[in-house]
Each structure stands twice: as C-alpha cells, then as structure tokens.
Design brief:
Order of helices and strands: HHHEEHHHHHHHHEEHHHHHHHHHHHHHHH
Structural class: mainly alpha
Distance between the termini: 19 Å
Largest sheet: 2 strands, antiparallel
Strand content: under 5%
Radius of gyration: 24 Å
Number of helices: 26
Strand order of the largest sheet: 1-2
Length: 580
Amino acid sequence: MNEQTLAQAHILSIITWLPVGGAILLLFFNAQRKSAIRLFANIWAVICFIPSLFLLAYDRNLGGIQFIEDFNWIPQIGARYQMGVDGIAVVLVLLTTLIGVIAINCSWDYIKERVKEFYIVMLLLQTGILGVFVSMDMFLFYVFWEVMLVPMYFVIGVWGSENRLYAAIKFFLYTLFGSVVMLLAVLKLYFIFPDYLSKNAQSQEILRSVTAAAQMISGNNQAMLQMITNAIDRGANGLYTFNIMAMQALGTARLNGQPIVPLTLQIWLFAGFFLSFAIKVPMFPFHTWLPDAHTEAPTAGSVILAGILLKLGTYGFLRFNLPIFPDASADPRVVQVMVFLAIMGIVYGALVAMAQKDWKRLVAYSSVSHMGMIMLGIFALNENAINGAVLQMINHGISTSALFMIVGVVYERRHTRLIADYGGLSHAMPGFAAVFMIMTMSSIGLPMLNGFIGEFLILRGVFETNKIWAAFAATGIVLGAGYMLWLYQRTMFGQVTNEANQKMPDLYKREWAYFLPLLVLAFWIGLYPKPVLSYFGKPVQTIVQQVKPGYAGAGAPVQARISGQQSAVGDQPTKPASDR
C-alpha cells in the first residue's frame, strides 16, 4: 500500500470541517465591515471547494468505500469516527461544495442585515450536509443529520420573507419528527446486531454468512472489507457497533435461502428510516413544508435547499433502506406503496405547479415532481433506473439551483415574485433570457442538456420493470414541459406592460460568474455523461445485487457469495481490532 500524506489520509475530514474553520474566523470580523465579510466568505467557499476536487481520484474500477478514516470516538457505546465515500457520495460531495460557492456568491447583494451571522450559518450548514454524505457510522451520521437542521432553520427564520417564522418552524418540526422515528430504527439495529452474531443459536452460521456478504459488498476493496470485518468482529464478541456497511452485510446475508433479519422486522425498520427520508425528499404527501420553505427562504437558502438538502433523502434511501433492508425494499407491497407515492408526487407536483401565480412557488412544486421521478427510478430496482436516479439527483441540483437564482435575480430588481408582474423581459435582459431558456430546457429534459440522459435512463429502467409506471412518469415529463414553457412565455415574451420592467438591468458580471459553472455542467453532462456515470456505476450495481440476491451483474453468482456456504472465512470469530 502506497504511503499517504497526512492531507490524503484525512481528506474527508478536511472537506467536512473546513467550513467550520471559516465560520470561526468570521467571528473575529467587525460586523460593520460587511464588504470585507462578504469577500472573505466568498473566498473561503472557494477554498472549501478545492479539497473536494481530490475526490476525483476515487478509483472507479475498484469501487466501494474509499478515503476511509476510522478512529475510536465513544468506545462506551461503540461509536466510531468513521468516514468514507463511494462513487455516489463523491459526486454529491462535489455538488455540495460547488453549490456552496454559488449560494454564498449569490447572497452578495441580497443579504443586507446580520451579514456576518448569515455567512457563519451558511458555512455551518455546509459542514452538516457534508458530514451526512461521508459518515460511515450511524451515530456520526445521525449527529450530522440533526446538526444541519439548526442552521437551515435560521437561514429561513431570520433572513426569509414575511412568513419566514411559520415556514421555518414547519420545516423544523416536520424534519425533527422524522428524525426521531429514524433514531428508534437506528437503535433497534444497534441492539440486534450483536444478538444475531453472538447470542443466536445459529450464530456461527450467521457469522459466516454475514462475513461472506461483507466480501460481496467490498469486492476487491480490502480497506473497506477490513472496516466491515472489524465491526463484524465486535458483534461476534457481543459488542455493539454503528457501522453502516456492517449493517448492510447483516441485511444482505442469508441463511438457508432466507434473510437473517426477518421480513416483518425489516419492513418495520424500513418504515422508520422511510419517514425521515421521505420528509426530506420530500415525497407526496410529506411535501407540504417545501413550498413554504422555498417561498420564504432567501435565494441562497432556496439554492441550498433544492440543490443539496433534498438529495439527502434520496441518498438515505440508497445508503440505508435498499441495502440494509433489501427484502423489505423488494417486497411487492412496499414497492407498490413507494411507486404509488412517487407517481403521485410526479403528477401532483406538476399539476399544482401549473396553477401557481408565484414564480418561486412554481419552481418549488416542480421540485416535488422531479424528486418523485427520482424516487420512481430508485424503486424500479434495476441498474438503468437507479443510475438515472443518481444522475438526476445531480441534474436537479444544477437546473433547479439555477432556476431559484433566476427568480432571485428578478426579485432583487423588482421585489416581486408574481408572474403577472413580468412580461417581455427578454427585451431588457437578453442575457438573462438566454440563461433562463437554457436552464428551462435543462429542467424539461431537452436532448444535449443534462436533464435528458437522467430522465431517459429512469424511463428505460422503469419501462423494464412496469410499462404502466413508465407511462405515468412520461405524463409528468409532458406536464413539466407545459408549466416551464408557460412560465417562460409569460415572463420573457410579449410586450413590456410594466414600465419598471423596461429599466431592469441585464445580468451583472458577478451574476454571470455564478451561472457559468452551472451552464457548463448542463451542457457537459448532456453531451458527455460517461465520466459522471462511471463514478457510481459500481456502487449502483452493488445495491442491485443486495436487493436482488440472484442478480449477477458484477460477475459470479451472488447467492453463493452471501449465503456463507463456501466462505473462506474460519468458523471462529476473531477478536476486535485494537482501537487506535
């Protein structure tokens, strides 16, 4: 193994905690020096983005969890400071740090009060989000999951619009309720893990099966296998662990063709995680907090909310629900419920978006529809659909972030979000109209732009599973084109009926600067998506293997590898690795 520099060995910690460093430094700034604070925050956001580029070195051929950090944290409860990323997390971390730069930049003129506090909260929010994506320990994951609620609450509640307190409290209570239910499911997993591996009458057979499942999940990634094996060893010796990948191995393993964790228990635990993640996505009917939060949040808050925060829910399904509870995820009853809710979100979100008079609220409901499409792709449970869903998570972050910034641009100039107050803006703002057109087509899914390939993969995968589901999904795409083109026509074309619209300046250089990277990504992914898809191809394949034990997309038959029948691992548990 090649020697790593200190920075390489701790790159995930650097990426995660660097925003906190900026927040601490901001404490020493004079609150009256607003220009200096804005400049520092923007520079620091770029500094936070740069280390994330090192994750592009992720070995796509090896796959699995890489850049692993593993240290003892709270030994009394078995919690460890474990970080790592697979290909899915890599692209989401990069998206987070990029959107973080853009969100802070687009706040330059918008935020005029409590400027120092705003940038401190934004940097803390970024750390919370990044921590969720890189955590490999459930306890650590839950800490970050809860921590990020607080800064988002303040972003909406302090710097939002007229009804900001109502929207902030609604967001907080919805999310907190789901989090508490998820905590109960986490604790249940925590307690049953050593019971199965050390106190069950068939503990030796279960241990072999779980170890074989760990080998299947890890592939040739020895560092990942070692991390999982250490956690399994703790369970085999009656000790507790929060390791996410070890829980996946337990959920994937089978004994005599049957899941070790009974289906009924899996479904109940699935439901516990489902509620928290479904609220965050948000899925219908848990979506009612989102339009209010978007409408009242400042532009930067909406950019973070749409671009990154919603992806935490879909990421949760891919990291927890599918691989830890594979039998529940593949159960026809569960699939039917999930697909029904996803399709309802697609169609309902699109129909309600068409009825909106508020520009920002329309984009918010479009997010409900787009996230429904992503959830449909996930629960089609095949490679094409899940690959499309992950890619669409990235695409939605690009296009919808841009759409909210577009609303922010006109709001800063006119201080109104009513669609009827605009019209003919392309005459006064041709550059703005061009950017708006490109991002509208990106959201619709026009070929050669990023939205097309994601929607195509989802539709292809869903069609393989159920043609009727695909028909409903296609209906949502048609409706989406309808409300987005209607919005564009109403605001950009026609005569300028309001004199104030004639005097609106076109995009400033700073505004071009934060739109440019999103425009480049929209065309790059649309024309050449292969590099992005290559990062999460193997992780998606592994997820499908876990949900479908007979699936052999990666080579050898999976059933034998996870049953423990021919495991090369010895019968006796090894002692836990010594804590560092």
